[in-house]
């Protein structure tokens, strides 16, 4: 390691200690992604308060340090070389400002309640907690892995509904460390996409409807059952690799080429759902990227359709 780099690393450590953040050096990112793939991050920092986050982002900006924010790691492919910079995770532990679900005041609307969720909260937990209070809106997306922040960033959803359907407003901190409140109308949500590229989402205000608790819990169970039947549960994967093309399904297209079980190294196309690529054991990002390219080319040759990746590929 060059001397100059070592000095910078020491400065970063000194700074992280000064703002009392939990951090690890040379942390394997494979430990933080559902694919269990990724080399080490120079720094992996867990942030518990907005004050820490603002301060950290200002420091990062002043020192031009590369950084990336991670949620549950369920939609990400990090490279085998890892990440030369700081990976930030909003902490979901009991002391963290980003790990709470609270009902809150909002403008009056009949039969509705406002719920404020910290971004680090697991989406399934938020859905179950609000269901227990007889609040409907998150049940269809309850079985999507990952955090509330990650779900909002990617407008996660299923056929019946997307997270943006139930958002009232969000709180973010921009990359310069400025706090902002964005109403839904200020955000562009599309299919598995938002324009929230230059900020960290810290809190999300959902507008949920009062409904029968048992009906909501029943829908949550049905969603889980549906997944058990249609997805390779218990494997290392990142959900759908490709977005569905308009009026079609990427899984159906891949399956039509008889590619289930096709593999590059330890990365294999699932036999249960062809849009899921599984890390069988010691799969790496290089093999995952080769398989993605291969499938893209095959689909283009056969159908003249350009598949777009749904997972975020971080170099
Ligand atoms: C088995 C399985 C099934 C899945 N099924 C579905 C499904 O049905 N529908 C669906 O939409 N997705 C699905 N996914 C994909 C994934 O679960 C979602 O995209 C999820 O919302 C990602 O959340 P996360 O917290 O894991 O985000 P991560 O994977 O950690 O991050 C994803 C992106 O969000 C950004 N991000 C995360 N947190 C924040 C934040 N606080 N502020 C700003 N940006 C942030 C990251 O920088 C990254 O760009 C599935 C994944 C798996 C493994």
Keywords for this structure?
single chain, 315 residues, alpha+beta, Uridine Diphospho-n-acetylenolpyruvylglucosamine Reductase, domain 2, Uridine Diphospho-n-acetylenolpyruvylglucosamine Reductase, domain 3, Uridine Diphospho-n-acetylenolpyruvylglucosamine Reductase, domain 1, six-stranded antiparallel sheet, four-stranded mixed sheet, 7 helices, 26% strand, globular, binds flavin-adenine dinucleotide
List the helices and strands and how they pair.
Layout: H1 3-18, E1 22-28, E2 40-47, H2 50-62, E3 67-70, E4 76-78, E5 83-90, E6 101-104, E7 112-118, H3 123-132, E8 135-136, H4 148-153, E9 167-174, E10 179-183, E11 189-190, E12 193-194, E13 199-210, H5 213-230, H6 250-256, E14 263-264, E15 267-269, E16 277-279, H7 285-303, E17 312-314
Parallel strand pairs: 2-5, 3-5, 4-17
Antiparallel strand pairs: 1-2, 6-7, 7-13, 8-13, 9-10, 9-13, 11-12, 14-15, 15-16
Helix pairs in contact: 3-5
The structure holds flavin-adenine dinucleotide.
Flavin-adenine dinucleotide binds next to strand 3, helix 4 and strand 13.
Summarize the structure.
With 315 residues, this protein is of the alpha+beta class. It contains 7 helices and 17 strands.
Overview of the structural elements:
- The chain is α+β, with helices and mostly antiparallel strands.
- It has 3 domains: 3-90, 2-Layer Sandwich (Uridine Diphospho-n-acetylenolpyruvylglucosamine Reductase, domain 2), CATH 3.30.43.10; 101-229, 2-Layer Sandwich (Uridine Diphospho-n-acetylenolpyruvylglucosamine Reductase, domain 3), CATH 3.30.465.10; 232-314, UDP-N-acetylenolpyruvoylglucosamine reductase, C-terminal domain (Uridine Diphospho-n-acetylenolpyruvylglucosamine Reductase, domain 1).
- The chain contains 7 helices and 17 strands.
- It has helices at 3-18, 50-62, 123-132, 148-153, 213-230, 250-256, 285-303; strands spanning 22-28, 40-47, 67-70, 76-78, 83-90, 101-104, 112-118, 135-136, 167-174, 179-183, 189-190, 193-194, 199-210, 263-264, 267-269, 277-279, 312-314.
- The strands form 5 sheets. Strands 6, 7, 8, 9, 10 and 13 form a 6-stranded antiparallel β-sheet that branches. A 4-stranded mixed β-sheet has the order 1-2-5-3, with helices on one face. Strands 14-15-16 form a 3-stranded antiparallel β-sheet.
- Strand 9 (167-174) and strand 10 form a beta hairpin.
- The chain is globular.
- It starts with a helix and ends with a strand.
- The relative contact order is 0.13.
- Bound molecules: flavin-adenine dinucleotide.
- Flavin-adenine dinucleotide binds at residues 34, 69-76, 90, 119, 144-147, 149-151, 153-154, 156-158, 192, 200-201, 231, 237-239, 312.
